[in-house]
Amino acid sequence: MTSQRVRDRLVERLRENGISDEATLEAIRLVPRHLFIDEALASRAYEDTALPIGHGQTISQPWVVARMTQAVQQVAPRKVLEVGTGSGYQAAVLAALGMEVHTVERIGDLLRQARKRFRSLGIEVRSKHDDGHLGWAEHGPFDAIVVTAAAAAPALVDGLVDQLAVGGRLVAPVAGAGNAQSLLQITRLADGQLEQQVLAPVTFVPLLAGLLD
Ligand code: SAH
Fold first, then answer.
1. Residue 87: active-site member
2. Ligand 1 contact via 46 beta carbon (within 6 Å)
3. Which of 150, 145, 211, 146 is nearest to 179 (CA)?
4. From 47, 111, 179, 199, which residue has the greatest number of CB atoms within 10 Å?
5. Which residue has a Cα nearest atom 4 of ligand 1?
6. pLDDT tens profile 123-137
């Protein structure tokens, strides 16, 4: 259920659904998603679906991970910030692409589990237990910022946009009317202007304030 064939099938499915960046697809093929979830769910690891990871949170759907990764790949980032470590899977995919990954998580227990996975898989990621709304200014500016929880309003990511390098790109799910959420892409152009684009409708758990153990 976790064999290379099953993973290859997921990659083919992502390709059929519009993911075209080969490096992104290769990273998804390489990172063992089944090791980022509870063993009881491992048989579903290569389905294109979000799965529970405890504390009411989820490991994102592979297509969404791929779409966000592909969006930031386009600016060839060296240093990236992820907000919402969760299982650690998205961070591992970014690290597999050779990016220097920084990730912030507000739930201590999830962060501890993710760190264990990074260690046992030999993945180098800098992480901290904090409210990711604040970004990680000491390590900024970042060439890319990936937010993996939905902001209730676009203004909530303004502080993160400030930590984007020139030429850098942020992708974040932002809530709209009703239950709708859109994946928003913001690029800081060379002249300092910000360019905004909506990439896709998505479903994420909410971006919340404050810390939990
Ligand atoms: N990238 C994760 C997705 C996890 S779901 C993965 O690949 O598994 C989103 C995560 O964002 C949750 O773990 C949630 O606790 C975290 N989160 C929500 N609001 C946050 C905030 N303000 N700062 C940091 N993390 C946050």
1. no
2. no
3. 150
4. 111
5. 86
6. 999 999 999 999 999
Q: Which of 43, 60, 87, 182 is catalytic?
A: 60
Choose among 65, 208, 103: nearest CA to 149: 208
How far apart, in whole angstroms, are the C-alpha atoms of residue 30 and residue 15?
15
Q: What is the DSSP letter of 39?
A: G
Instruction: Check: CB of residue 49 under 8 Å from CB of residue 41.
Output: no
Is 10 domain-assigned? Answer: no
190 alpha carbon – ligand 1 mean position (Å): 30
**84 Cβ closer than 6 Å to some ligand 1 atom:** yes
Is 86's C-beta closer than 6 angstroms to any atom of ligand 1? Answer: yes
- Residue 126 domain boundaries: 50-201
Does the predicted model carry a pTM greater than 0.85?
Answer: yes
Question: What CATH number is attached to the domain comprising 75?
Answer: 3.40.50.150
Average pLDDT over residues 20-24: 98
DSSP H/E element including 53: strand 51-54
Q: Is residue 17 part of a domain?
A: no
Ligand 1 centroid to residue 203 C-alpha, Å? 13
pLDDT tens string 67-124: 999 999 999 999 999 999 999 999 999 999 999 999 999 999 999 999 999 999 999 9
